[in-house]
Amino acid sequence: MYYIDPHLHMVSRTTDDYETLAKMGCVAISEPAFWAGFDRGSGESFRDYFRQLTEVEPKRAAQYGIQHFTWLCINAKEAENVELSREVLKIIPEFLDCPNVLGIGEIGLNKNTKNEAIIFQEHMELAIAHQQQVLIHTPHLEDKYQGTRMILDMLGEHSIDRSRVLVDHVEEHTVGPVLEAGYWAGMTLYPVTKCTPSRAVDIIERHGAERLCVNSAGDWGPSKPTAVPDLVLEMRRRGHKESLIKKVVYDNPRDFFSQSKNFNLENPAER
Amino acid sequence: MNSNQVLDREFLEIRAKILEVAAALDRIERAEGDVSGEPRMALIADAIKIIASGHADPIRAEKIQLLFSRTYDEQWRNEFSIASRS
Ligand SMILES: [Zn+2]
Questions:
Q1: Residue A174 DSSP symbol
Q2: Which of A3, A173, B3, B18 is the most interior residue, by most CB within 10 Å?
Q3: Is A113 helix (H, G, I), strand (E, B) or coil?
Q4: Residue of A nearest to B80 (CA)
Q5: Do the strands A101-108 and A133-137 form a parallel or antiparallel pair, or are they unpaired?
Q6: Contacts of B61 in chain A (CB under 8 A)
Q7: B residues 51-80 near A, CB within 8 Å?
Q8: What's the gap in Å between the CA of B51 and the closest CA on chain A?
Q9: Which residues fall within 8 angstroms of residue B11, CB to CB, at 6 or more apart?
Q10: A176-220, pLDDT tens digit by residue?
Q11: Residues near B58 by Cβ (< 8 Å), separated by ≥ 6?
Q12: What's the CA gap between A55 and A74, in Å, rounded?
C-alpha cells in the first residue's frame, strides 16, 4: 500500500532508511523543523538547517522516488531562548516560498513554560501573516495533557481556519479535545514515550478516522521510521477495510497538506 | 473481531505484561532502601486499581493517561502574566 509519513525527521536518518521506506510503499514525507539534540548557538545555524530541509533532503528523497516536504520554525525546546527565537522568526520568511515548504512547524510547548508560550504565539502570528498552515508538537508524558490544553487555549485566540492546523502526538487523553475543537490530529508511533500501533488503532476505532493522521516521528533518538506500515499491518489483522487503512495513511495526510499551495503530490498510481 | 477473538489474540500478551509489572515491583522491593512513601509508587498503585476496575464505557487507557498527567489550570495565563490575545 502507498502511504505518506506526515512527520519524519530525515536529516537524522541514513540514506538506507530512505531506501527501506521506499520499499515499504512510502511515497511522500513531511519533515517538521525540530531540535537537533543540542541547543544551536545562533540564528545562522538555523539558516543552514533550513537550507538542509529545503535543498538537501528533497534531493536525497527523490533518489528513491519519495517526495519530501517540510515545515519551518524554531522548536519548542530552543524557544525557551526568546532572543534566539526572534532571530529565527526573522529568517523563516526567506524560505517560505521554497517549493517543498508546507507551513510553520513543529511549533508547540515542551515544558509548558512562559517563554515557550510567548514564542508559540509569535509563530502563530507569523503563520497568519503569511497564510501558512501550522503543525504543532505537543509535549511528552506528564506534560502532554496540560500542554495540549494550553495550546488549544492559545489557538482559540487566533482567527485561523482550524482545518489548516494539525496538533500532533495526540494520545488517548488528548485526541478528543483536539478533534472536537475542529483541528486535525496526528498520532505518533514511538517506542516508550508515545503511542503503539495497537493503541493507535484503538483510538481510530473509538474516534473514527476523520481528520486523524498517523506518523513515525522518526528522529535521532530511539524511533522506528517504518512504524506506519506496522499500523497498516495491525489494522489488517483486525479486519479493517483497505479503504479505511488508505484513508488514514494516505488520503488524510494528502487532504490536509493539499491546503498548502506548495503541495504537489504526484499520484503514485499514475506515475 | 468479537471479544473472544480479541481475548485469544491478547491473552498471552496481557499475561506477559502483567508478569513484567509484577517482577519490576518485586525488583523495587528487593532493592536496598524504601520507596513506599514515593508519590510515583502511589501512582502505580492507583493505575493498577484502574486496570482492575470494570467499565460500562471502557476508557481505562484514557484514565491512566490522566492519572499520570500534570493538572491543567484554565487560569494558567495569570501565573505567567500573559494576557489572552482575543
Ligand atoms: Zn517531531
A1: T
A2: A3
A3: coil
A4: A114
A5: parallel
A6: 172, 199, 202
A7: 59, 61-62, 65-66, 68-72, 74, 76-77, 80
A8: 15
A9: none
A10: 999 999 999 999 998 766 799 999 999 999 999 999 999 999 999
A11: none
A12: 18
Q: Ligand 1: distance of its center to the CA of B21 in Å?
A: 30
Same domain? For B43 and B71 the reply is yes
Q: Tell me the three cell numbers of residue A209.
A: 478516522
Q: Is the pLDDT of residue B56 over 90?
A: no
pLDDT at A1: 92
**Centre of ligand 1 from the C-alpha of residue A217, in Å:** 5
Q: Which residues on chain B are in Cβ contact (under 8 Å) with A158? A: 85-86
Per-residue pLDDT of A84-96, as tens digits, reads 999 999 999 999 9
∠ CA(A190), CA(A66), CA(A128), 5° rounding? 70
Domains of chain A: 3-263 (3.20.20.140)
Instruction: ipTM value, please give it.
Output: 0.93
Q: Is B85–A171 a contact, with Cβ atoms under 8 angstroms apart? A: no
Q: What percent of chain A has pLDDT over 90?
A: 96
Q: Are residues B20 and B45 in the same domain?
A: no
Q: How far is the CA of A18 from the centre of ligand 1 (A)?
A: 17
Q: Which three cell numbers stand for residue A236?
A: 489488517
